[in-house]
Amino acid sequence: MLYSSFRFNNGFSLNQYKTIFLSDYILQSFANSIWLSLVSACLALIIAIFASYAIYTYSEKVRERILIIINLTSNFSGVPLAFAFIIILGNSGLITLFVQFMGWDWNFNLYSWSGLLLIYIYFQLPLAIMLIYPVFYGIQKEMKDAAMMLGASNAYFWRKIGVPIIWPALAGTLTILFANAMGAYASAYALTGSGYNLTAIRIGALLSGDIFAQPELASAIAVLLGAVMIVGMLISEWMTKKMRKDANL
Amino acid sequence: MKFIRWIPLTFVGLYLAIPLLATVVYAFSTSWNHTVFPEGLTLKWILTLFQDKEFLLAFGRSVLLSAGAVLLSVILVVPAICVIILYFPQYEKWVKAIIVMIYSFPGIILSVGLLKFYSVTVIPLVAVVVGVYCVIILPYLYQGTKNSLMTINGRQLMDAAELLGANKWYSFRKILMPSIYPGLFVATLLSFSILFGEFVLINLIVGSKFKTLQVFLVEQLNTSGHLASAVVFIYVLLMAILTFSVMQLSTRMKGANAK
Questions:
Q1: Is A57 helix (H, G, I), strand (E, B) or coil?
Q2: Could you point out which of A77, A205, B46, B226 has its C-alpha 20 to 30 Å from the C-alpha of B74?
Q3: Rounded to an integer, what distance in angstroms lies between the CA atom of residue B161 and that of residue A22?
Q4: Smallest Cα–Cα separation from A72: which of B27, B138, B142, B20?
């Protein structure tokens, strides 16, 4: 793939990359993808932290049941998921009709950025909860009791002990979620066809030849997409290390 | 502090449940385009679906493809994993490296490389997809096999069997396989459900030449919403059955281990 991305008219060339960087359209797809992935990953992570903490406070039996449901919904992604959202929020969807029925003024377009964001959060949430949930086991109750005995308040405990302990796991989870969203193709494809400009959609369109197939250009975009993910991983690793150093001081 | 317990959970629960439930209700409703609640309930869509040859074929293809890949993995990959874990633990780091690579290459990037490489060879693209599927499920099979081998002390079991005069192949077949079977079974169910929902690779690499359930669903989306939701309903039902059997089996295994 790397090799093919440097090919142009049977010779070595940087032409494909030049095309990418000169094309506002492809650059915009990268911007859209990165922004959408980042926002959906952060939101899913924040919700997942609260939800996991809430799950953690319940008894073993209830916890297991909640996890079964979450496990089930984690399989509900891709094309079926996009379809479900069309049913509830599409042009004649359940909630859309309800809002019209109530006579509220509400301009929500599922086939846009905010619609995609909702769907992305949906498939990120179960994954995020399953990744975050075990982290709370790492904070044993004894630690909290000990800190309380030494006079720490609840907020102080979380700021000085809890958060530094779970921070590396949070950063790692964020990276996974980010990569997960960057590589997601099925939901967006099923929802908007090639309508909304995302990197994964662009690659798919160039490959299958919705306009005309350009596998070399697709390769080059795929290489860049991979590079974006690697950069994301490096940033999270660097931040984790920095946090650790700060904690040591 | 009580609200911290239930507000996030209610929110997540509703968020996750509403699309799922709406789809299921839609699959059973006569018409639901202008009202907030469905106008009536019917089994028509599900029945139509089961008379639709295209659907049955697509369903069959999906099962064939996923089950084929899982079966192939169990026959070829699992013994290899066993040998590596039991006799060559120094190579395990390579397996782990492969697993990290699998996770970091999403289907959309993978398909570009695969298409580029295999479209010029004589290997049929469906076979390529089966091959990739075998690779995709490797992490699950590896973890499942490894956990099972750890709990039964695989290496000692093999050594003991050989000491008693069984050859390696015999002890693998008669002793190791039956004892890791439950763990392996859970892993295969999980792998199957993951492959069953796969869309990117099959759509981009093979496309409409080999219509699986997912590809069929995308086509239905543009024609009939009710039929599409019936497809989703059956898909969700299948996933639910798989998930629950996995859960049931793993809790039973936990119980057995505790004894």
A1: coil
A2: A77
A3: 67
A4: B20
Taking a C-beta distance cutoff of 8 angstroms, is the pair A41, A124 a contact? yes
Give the pLDDT of residue A210. 54
> CA end-to-end span of chain A, whole Å?
45
Backbone angles phi, psi at A210, to 5 degrees: -60, -40
DSSP string for B93-124:
HHHHHHHHHHHHS-HHHHHHHHHHHHTTSSS-
Nearest CA in chain A to B243: A72
Q: With H, G, I as helix, E, B as strand and everything else as coil, classify residue B41.
A: strand
Structure tokens at A186: 């099925």
B11 interaction partners in chain A (CB closer than 8 Å): 47, 51
- At residue B259 the predicted structure's pLDDT band, cuts being 50, 70 and 90, is very low
Residue B173, both tokens? 């077949």
Residue pointed to by tokens 């039973």: B252
- CB count, 10 Å around CB of A58? 15
Q: Are B85 and B166 in contact (CB under 8 A)?
A: no
Terminus-to-terminus CA distance in chain B, angstroms? 39
pLDDT band at A249 (very low <50, low <70, confident <90, very high): very low
Torsion of CA B171, B172, B178, B181, to 10 degrees: 160
Q: How close does chain B come to A248, measured CA to CA in Å?
A: 30
Segment B8-43, tens digit of pLDDT? 778 888 888 888 888 788 777 766 666 656 666 677
> Is the Cβ pair B36, A72 closer than 8 Å?
no
Nearest CA-CA distance, residue B176 and chain A, Å: 30
